[in-house]
Design a protein that fits this description.
The chain is mainly beta. Helices cover 15% and strands 56% of the residues. Strands 1, 2, 3, 4, 5, 6, 7, 8, 9 and 12 form a ten-stranded mixed β-sheet that branches. A two-stranded antiparallel ribbon has the order 10-11. A hairpin with a 2-residue loop joins β6 and β7. The chain is elongated.
């Protein structure tokens, strides 16, 4: 009876170990950061974003090409230093776009808070050079928001957003 129990435990350990090995070698870790491009931040202006979703577009995917990194709401203050947004294990492959859903943007000018206009609540961002994620690898994806501008009495978040893999 003791031999059967040991055999069952060994089989279970092999199954669990195989599952984790398969998952590790068919997925990679992606860490997503956001920042103002260096030199764009002002000591007098602070930008806060409420990010509600981050997704990646997988090249040559069968079925739905969008892979969810996070659906957790995060409030982030932009700075010239990269600020962590989210991290996830996603299927290995090539990715060419990141989808960033922003619920709200607040611009603090001195002691005054102004709700910024977002041309849309969604930024569909091209990843410069793409991102190749191998099984077991980790990549750091940096999203750069070029800041705000003022037009017709409104504060507008510039929709020209870029992303790149930090090498």
């Amino acid at each position: 009876m003791k031999g059967v129990t040991v055999g069952i435990i060994i089989v279970l350990l092999l199954l669990v170990g195989g599952y984790f090995a398969y998952n590790y070698f068919t997925t990679g870790q992606v860490n997503v950061y956001i920042q103002d491009p260096p030199g764009q931040s002002s000591s007098n202006v602070a930008i806060y974003l409420v990010v509600t979703s981050i997704m990646l577009h997988k090249v040559n995917a069968t079925g739905n090409p969008w892979v969810t990194v996070s659906n957790k709401t995060v409030v982030v203050k932009l700075s010239s230093n990269a600020t962590f947004l989210a991290s996830a294990r996603v299927p290995a492959g090539e990715y060419n776009e990141v989808f960033l859903e922003v619920k709200q943007a607040i611009v603090q000018i001195g002691n005054t808070n102004v709700t910024a206009t977002l041309p849309s609540g969604v930024f569909k961002i091209h990843i410069t050079g793409g991102m190749r994620l191998s099984g077991g690898s980790t990549e750091n994806l940096i999203i750069e928001l070029p800041g705000v501008h003022f037009a017709n009495g409104e504060v507008i978040i510039n929709p020209s957003v870029t992303a790149y893999v930090q090498g």
